[in-house]
Amino acid sequence: MVIMPKPYQTRLNDILAVMVSYQVGLAASETFTSLTDCLKAHKLSMDIVVYDNSREPISMGDYATCRNWFITYIHDQSNSGVSKAYNTAFSIARKKRKKWILLLDQDTRFPINALHSYIDSLTAHPGEHLFAPALLVGQKMISPCRYYFKRGFHLKSSSPGIHSIRHKTILNSGMCISADAFEKNNGYNDKIRLYFSDLDFIERYAKLFNSFCLIDMQCMHNHGHDNGNFDNTISRFRLYCEGARQSSHNAWDFIILFIMLSFRSLGYSVRHRSFAFVAIFARYFLQKT
Question: What confidence score (pLDDT) does residue 1 get?
């Protein structure tokens, strides 16, 4: 058992984590179980908001009484999405006088020294407002990545430390942002329920701040793909079109996303032999809501 010095717990008390869950109990969430292992290994405790977008409340299991977590559980059966969850957590963070918000999804595996890495980075770079680990899918780094024309492009590698935020984007899971910067950036766009939520947030963040800190840490991320299931693909494509429309802020954005989604809808239509995807594209992207 490795016991962290008291200052680590003191700094951790400044952070509110928020994990968005959908149809996955806490014991089945890689994010929650890996961070629990980290807390237990170093005898630490942490505040977390579990924002549950499932139709029925998820199972809390033994974690409901786990001494390493102080859990605020919110069940949103209307499935309002990740943006609403993060904004709700920000309001809670302010009430609890937290200085930082750690954004999480349910499918990221953190290393055993994850919280040590966060706290060391926050201490070493007091002038920064946004910290993030490298997110990997297999051997490929998906965050941070280059960002051009409303699309992310993989970086082959990136060294830990301070980087320019210009022409880069960062995915939600693992992002640790100061509550003050979150507020200054007007939080997340509640109308973007899933896809494009992080891209939209970082686009706006980059207009206010110049840099971010890449933590010396790699996390394994699960994209949560649909495995070819037609209903899941339809549902995800609808959210994708909704997010794209809400993140389209000018004519240039609209043209780029129109081309991107046109090809995607046609590709899905051919693959699944259904024009439902073209209809979704027309309804959820072309018709502004």
Answer: 42
